[in-house]
Design goal:
This protein has helices at 7-15, 30-38, 45-55, 70-75, 87-96, 134-147, 161-166, 206-211, 227-236, 263-272; strands at 18-24, 59-62, 80-84, 103-107, 119-124, 148-159, 171-179, 182-192, 198-204, 213-223, 243-247, 255-261. It is of the alpha/beta class. It folds into two domains: 7-37 and 163-223, no CATH class; 45-160 and 225-268, Rossmann fold. The strands form two sheets. A seven-stranded mixed beta sheet has the order 4-3-2-5-6-12-11, sandwiched between helices. The chain binds S-adenosylmethionine (SAM).
Length: 273
Protein backbone atom coordinates (compact mmCIF):
# COMPACT_ATOMS: atom_id res chain seq x y z
CA UNK A 1 0.00 0.00 0.00
CA UNK A 2 1.22 3.51 -0.83
CA UNK A 3 2.48 5.42 2.21
CA UNK A 4 0.21 8.45 2.49
CA UNK A 5 1.41 10.03 5.73
CA UNK A 6 2.59 13.64 5.37
CA UNK A 7 5.97 14.68 6.80
CA UNK A 8 4.32 17.02 9.32
CA UNK A 9 2.01 14.27 10.64
CA UNK A 10 4.96 11.87 10.75
CA UNK A 11 6.88 14.41 12.89
CA UNK A 12 3.93 14.79 15.28
CA UNK A 13 3.60 11.03 15.61
CA UNK A 14 7.33 10.67 16.34
CA UNK A 15 7.09 13.36 19.03
CA UNK A 16 4.18 11.51 20.69
CA UNK A 17 5.95 8.14 20.19
CA UNK A 18 2.84 7.03 18.33
CA UNK A 19 2.39 4.88 15.21
CA UNK A 20 0.09 5.71 12.32
CA UNK A 21 -2.86 3.43 11.68
CA UNK A 22 -3.48 4.53 8.09
CA UNK A 23 -7.10 4.45 6.92
CA UNK A 24 -8.32 5.30 3.42
CA UNK A 25 -10.97 8.03 3.56
CA UNK A 26 -13.29 5.93 1.38
CA UNK A 27 -13.12 2.53 3.04
CA UNK A 28 -14.34 1.02 6.30
CA UNK A 29 -14.54 3.48 9.19
CA UNK A 30 -13.04 6.16 6.89
CA UNK A 31 -16.45 6.44 5.24
CA UNK A 32 -18.09 7.38 8.56
CA UNK A 33 -15.53 10.18 8.91
CA UNK A 34 -16.22 11.31 5.30
CA UNK A 35 -19.93 11.43 6.12
CA UNK A 36 -19.28 13.58 9.16
CA UNK A 37 -16.89 15.81 7.21
CA UNK A 38 -19.02 16.57 4.14
CA UNK A 39 -22.39 14.85 4.64
CA UNK A 40 -24.17 18.14 5.38
CA UNK A 41 -22.48 20.03 2.50
CA UNK A 42 -25.16 21.23 0.07
CA UNK A 43 -22.66 22.53 -2.53
CA UNK A 44 -23.43 21.58 -6.15
CA UNK A 45 -26.91 20.19 -5.40
CA UNK A 46 -28.74 23.23 -6.80
CA UNK A 47 -26.67 23.17 -10.02
CA UNK A 48 -27.02 19.39 -10.49
CA UNK A 49 -30.79 19.59 -9.95
CA UNK A 50 -31.03 22.38 -12.53
CA UNK A 51 -29.08 20.25 -15.02
CA UNK A 52 -31.34 17.26 -14.33
CA UNK A 53 -34.44 19.36 -14.99
CA UNK A 54 -32.93 20.35 -18.35
CA UNK A 55 -31.71 16.91 -19.49
CA UNK A 56 -34.17 14.57 -17.79
CA UNK A 57 -33.03 11.08 -16.89
CA UNK A 58 -31.69 8.54 -16.63
CA UNK A 59 -28.74 9.96 -14.70
CA UNK A 60 -25.44 8.38 -13.77
CA UNK A 61 -23.74 9.74 -10.64
CA UNK A 62 -20.07 8.82 -11.01
CA UNK A 63 -18.07 8.41 -7.78
CA UNK A 64 -21.45 8.80 -6.08
CA UNK A 65 -20.13 7.82 -2.67
CA UNK A 66 -22.69 8.04 0.09
CA UNK A 67 -25.11 9.76 -2.27
CA UNK A 68 -24.83 13.45 -1.40
CA UNK A 69 -25.97 14.21 -4.99
CA UNK A 70 -27.78 10.95 -5.76
CA UNK A 71 -30.24 11.20 -2.87
CA UNK A 72 -31.86 14.54 -3.85
CA UNK A 73 -31.96 13.40 -7.51
CA UNK A 74 -33.76 10.15 -6.66
CA UNK A 75 -36.08 11.93 -4.24
CA UNK A 76 -37.00 14.33 -7.06
CA UNK A 77 -38.12 11.43 -9.21
CA UNK A 78 -35.07 10.75 -11.43
CA UNK A 79 -33.81 7.26 -12.20
CA UNK A 80 -30.17 7.22 -11.02
CA UNK A 81 -27.29 4.78 -11.37
CA UNK A 82 -24.77 5.45 -8.59
CA UNK A 83 -21.30 4.16 -9.47
CA UNK A 84 -18.50 4.00 -6.92
CA UNK A 85 -15.38 1.92 -6.36
CA UNK A 86 -16.09 1.71 -2.65
CA UNK A 87 -18.69 -0.77 -1.49
CA UNK A 88 -18.51 0.87 1.95
CA UNK A 89 -19.39 4.32 0.57
CA UNK A 90 -22.32 2.91 -1.42
CA UNK A 91 -23.56 1.13 1.74
CA UNK A 92 -24.33 4.54 3.26
CA UNK A 93 -26.39 5.37 0.16
CA UNK A 94 -28.20 2.02 0.20
CA UNK A 95 -29.09 2.60 3.84
CA UNK A 96 -30.45 6.08 3.03
CA UNK A 97 -32.68 4.80 0.20
CA UNK A 98 -33.29 1.10 0.94
CA UNK A 99 -34.54 -0.88 -2.09
CA UNK A 100 -35.57 2.29 -3.91
CA UNK A 101 -36.99 1.34 -7.33
CA UNK A 102 -35.30 4.33 -9.07
CA UNK A 103 -31.81 3.67 -7.70
CA UNK A 104 -29.17 1.25 -8.96
CA UNK A 105 -25.92 1.06 -7.00
CA UNK A 106 -22.96 -0.32 -8.95
CA UNK A 107 -19.53 -1.02 -7.47
CA UNK A 108 -17.22 -0.15 -10.37
CA UNK A 109 -14.12 1.81 -11.28
CA UNK A 110 -14.97 5.13 -12.96
CA UNK A 111 -11.95 4.58 -15.20
CA UNK A 112 -13.57 1.56 -16.81
CA UNK A 113 -17.24 0.79 -16.33
CA UNK A 114 -19.57 -0.99 -18.72
CA UNK A 115 -23.30 -0.67 -18.18
CA UNK A 116 -26.14 -1.53 -20.52
CA UNK A 117 -27.92 1.84 -20.28
CA UNK A 118 -27.12 5.23 -21.87
CA UNK A 119 -27.61 8.37 -19.81
CA UNK A 120 -29.05 11.83 -20.44
CA UNK A 121 -26.80 13.20 -17.70
CA UNK A 122 -23.48 11.99 -16.25
CA UNK A 123 -22.38 13.81 -13.10
CA UNK A 124 -18.96 13.71 -11.44
CA UNK A 125 -19.31 16.02 -8.45
CA UNK A 126 -17.33 16.98 -5.34
CA UNK A 127 -14.28 17.73 -7.55
CA UNK A 128 -13.71 13.94 -7.62
CA UNK A 129 -11.99 14.19 -11.01
CA UNK A 130 -8.91 15.06 -8.91
CA UNK A 131 -8.82 11.46 -7.64
CA UNK A 132 -7.53 10.39 -11.05
CA UNK A 133 -4.13 10.75 -12.70
CA UNK A 134 -3.82 11.66 -16.39
CA UNK A 135 -4.21 8.10 -17.65
CA UNK A 136 -7.16 7.53 -15.30
CA UNK A 137 -8.87 10.70 -16.55
CA UNK A 138 -8.46 9.69 -20.16
CA UNK A 139 -10.01 6.28 -19.39
CA UNK A 140 -12.83 7.97 -17.47
CA UNK A 141 -13.64 10.24 -20.45
CA UNK A 142 -13.78 7.16 -22.72
CA UNK A 143 -16.14 5.36 -20.31
CA UNK A 144 -18.39 8.43 -20.02
CA UNK A 145 -18.55 8.84 -23.82
CA UNK A 146 -19.64 5.21 -24.16
CA UNK A 147 -22.53 5.81 -21.78
CA UNK A 148 -23.86 9.21 -22.85
CA UNK A 149 -27.08 9.31 -24.88
CA UNK A 150 -27.11 11.46 -28.03
CA UNK A 151 -27.12 15.04 -26.67
CA UNK A 152 -26.33 13.65 -23.21
CA UNK A 153 -24.54 16.06 -20.88
CA UNK A 154 -21.38 15.31 -18.88
CA UNK A 155 -20.96 17.65 -15.89
CA UNK A 156 -18.00 17.74 -13.54
CA UNK A 157 -16.73 20.13 -10.91
CA UNK A 158 -13.30 21.51 -10.00
CA UNK A 159 -11.99 23.99 -7.42
CA UNK A 160 -11.46 27.55 -8.65
CA UNK A 161 -9.98 30.88 -7.56
CA UNK A 162 -8.65 31.12 -4.01
CA UNK A 163 -10.01 27.64 -3.15
CA UNK A 164 -7.85 26.18 -5.94
CA UNK A 165 -4.86 28.21 -4.73
CA UNK A 166 -5.11 26.69 -1.23
CA UNK A 167 -4.91 23.21 -2.77
CA UNK A 168 -1.43 23.78 -4.15
CA UNK A 169 0.34 24.89 -0.94
CA UNK A 170 1.21 22.86 2.18
CA UNK A 171 -1.26 23.26 5.04
CA UNK A 172 -1.67 22.25 8.64
CA UNK A 173 -4.57 23.50 10.72
CA UNK A 174 -7.29 22.34 13.06
CA UNK A 175 -10.85 21.85 11.89
CA UNK A 176 -14.10 21.07 13.67
CA UNK A 177 -15.94 17.94 12.58
CA UNK A 178 -19.40 17.01 13.91
CA UNK A 179 -19.29 13.77 15.89
CA UNK A 180 -21.81 11.44 17.49
CA UNK A 181 -21.26 13.13 20.88
CA UNK A 182 -20.74 16.72 19.68
CA UNK A 183 -18.05 18.51 17.70
CA UNK A 184 -14.53 17.06 17.55
CA UNK A 185 -11.24 18.72 16.70
CA UNK A 186 -9.17 17.20 13.91
CA UNK A 187 -5.81 18.20 12.54
CA UNK A 188 -5.82 18.62 8.75
CA UNK A 189 -2.45 18.32 7.00
CA UNK A 190 -1.76 18.71 3.29
CA UNK A 191 1.54 17.98 1.57
CA UNK A 192 2.29 18.86 -2.04
CA UNK A 193 4.41 16.44 -4.06
CA UNK A 194 7.75 17.71 -5.34
CA UNK A 195 6.43 18.16 -8.91
CA UNK A 196 3.38 20.08 -7.64
CA UNK A 197 1.05 17.71 -9.52
CA UNK A 198 -0.62 16.03 -6.56
CA UNK A 199 -1.27 16.43 -2.87
CA UNK A 200 -1.57 14.05 0.04
CA UNK A 201 -4.13 14.90 2.71
CA UNK A 202 -4.33 13.58 6.29
CA UNK A 203 -6.77 14.02 9.16
CA UNK A 204 -6.15 12.90 12.72
CA UNK A 205 -7.49 13.68 16.18
CA UNK A 206 -4.85 15.52 18.28
CA UNK A 207 -6.53 14.02 21.39
CA UNK A 208 -5.49 10.55 20.12
CA UNK A 209 -1.86 11.71 19.81
CA UNK A 210 -1.69 12.56 23.46
CA UNK A 211 -2.55 8.98 24.27
CA UNK A 212 0.29 7.59 22.12
CA UNK A 213 0.04 4.03 20.71
CA UNK A 214 -1.63 3.55 17.34
CA UNK A 215 -3.30 6.69 16.01
CA UNK A 216 -5.81 6.55 13.17
CA UNK A 217 -4.75 8.79 10.27
CA UNK A 218 -7.30 9.21 7.48
CA UNK A 219 -5.64 9.63 4.11
CA UNK A 220 -6.23 10.44 0.46
CA UNK A 221 -4.20 11.46 -2.60
CA UNK A 222 -5.59 14.04 -5.02
CA UNK A 223 -4.29 15.71 -8.17
CA UNK A 224 -3.87 19.46 -8.43
CA UNK A 225 -5.91 20.36 -11.52
CA UNK A 226 -6.97 23.57 -13.20
CA UNK A 227 -10.18 23.87 -15.20
CA UNK A 228 -8.27 24.91 -18.37
CA UNK A 229 -6.40 21.64 -18.33
CA UNK A 230 -9.63 19.68 -17.89
CA UNK A 231 -11.28 21.67 -20.69
CA UNK A 232 -8.35 20.81 -22.98
CA UNK A 233 -8.46 17.12 -22.02
CA UNK A 234 -12.23 16.96 -22.65
CA UNK A 235 -11.86 18.39 -26.15
CA UNK A 236 -8.94 15.99 -26.87
CA UNK A 237 -11.21 13.13 -25.72
CA UNK A 238 -14.03 13.98 -28.14
CA UNK A 239 -16.19 16.33 -26.07
CA UNK A 240 -17.26 19.87 -26.93
CA UNK A 241 -15.42 22.80 -25.25
CA UNK A 242 -17.12 22.87 -21.84
CA UNK A 243 -19.42 25.62 -20.69
CA UNK A 244 -17.98 26.81 -17.38
CA UNK A 245 -20.10 28.37 -14.64
CA UNK A 246 -19.59 29.09 -10.94
CA UNK A 247 -21.22 26.88 -8.31
CA UNK A 248 -22.95 28.86 -5.56
CA UNK A 249 -21.63 27.79 -2.14
CA UNK A 250 -22.53 28.95 1.35
CA UNK A 251 -19.07 28.74 2.93
CA UNK A 252 -17.15 30.81 0.37
CA UNK A 253 -15.67 27.74 -1.34
CA UNK A 254 -15.01 28.49 -5.00
CA UNK A 255 -16.07 25.69 -7.33
CA UNK A 256 -16.71 25.65 -11.08
CA UNK A 257 -19.02 23.42 -13.05
CA UNK A 258 -17.84 22.19 -16.47
CA UNK A 259 -20.65 21.05 -18.76
CA UNK A 260 -19.99 19.29 -22.05
CA UNK A 261 -21.51 16.92 -24.61
CA UNK A 262 -20.07 14.48 -27.14
CA UNK A 263 -18.52 16.49 -29.99
CA UNK A 264 -20.46 14.56 -32.64
CA UNK A 265 -23.77 15.71 -31.04
CA UNK A 266 -22.75 19.34 -31.68
CA UNK A 267 -21.63 18.58 -35.26
CA UNK A 268 -24.96 16.83 -35.96
CA UNK A 269 -26.91 19.78 -34.52
CA UNK A 270 -24.87 22.23 -36.68
CA UNK A 271 -25.43 20.23 -39.88
CA UNK A 272 -29.21 20.28 -39.18
CA UNK A 273 -29.26 24.10 -39.27
C1 LIG B 1 -15.13 13.12 -2.75
S1 LIG B 1 -16.06 11.61 -2.70
C2 LIG B 1 -17.51 12.16 -3.56
C3 LIG B 1 -18.76 11.46 -3.13
C4 LIG B 1 -20.06 12.13 -3.59
N1 LIG B 1 -20.15 12.29 -5.03
C5 LIG B 1 -20.25 13.48 -2.92
O1 LIG B 1 -20.57 14.43 -3.63
O2 LIG B 1 -20.11 13.56 -1.70
C6 LIG B 1 -15.21 10.66 -3.90
C7 LIG B 1 -15.75 9.28 -4.16
O3 LIG B 1 -15.01 8.71 -5.26
C8 LIG B 1 -14.89 7.32 -5.03
N2 LIG B 1 -13.81 6.83 -5.88
C9 LIG B 1 -12.48 6.97 -5.73
N3 LIG B 1 -11.83 6.42 -6.76
C10 LIG B 1 -12.76 5.89 -7.58
C11 LIG B 1 -12.73 5.20 -8.82
N4 LIG B 1 -11.57 4.94 -9.43
N5 LIG B 1 -13.89 4.82 -9.38
C12 LIG B 1 -15.08 5.08 -8.76
N6 LIG B 1 -15.18 5.74 -7.59
C13 LIG B 1 -14.03 6.15 -7.01
C14 LIG B 1 -14.66 7.21 -3.54
O4 LIG B 1 -14.94 5.92 -3.07
C15 LIG B 1 -15.62 8.29 -3.02
O5 LIG B 1 -16.88 7.74 -2.72
Amino acid sequence: MEDLITDSVRARLALARADAKELDLYSGAGTDFYQRLVGADRAEIREVMALARRTGGPIIDIAAGSGRLTIPLVRSGYRVTAVDLSHDMLSHLRRALPDHPSLDCVVADMRDFRLTRRYALAVLGATSITLLDEDGRSRLYRSVRRHLATDGVFALTVAAGTSAATLSVPQEHEITVPGPAGDETYLFAQQIDADGASRVVNWLRPADLRRGGAVTVLTSRLRVLHRDRLAHELVESGFTPPRISPVRTQDGQEIELLETTRAESLRAAQSDV
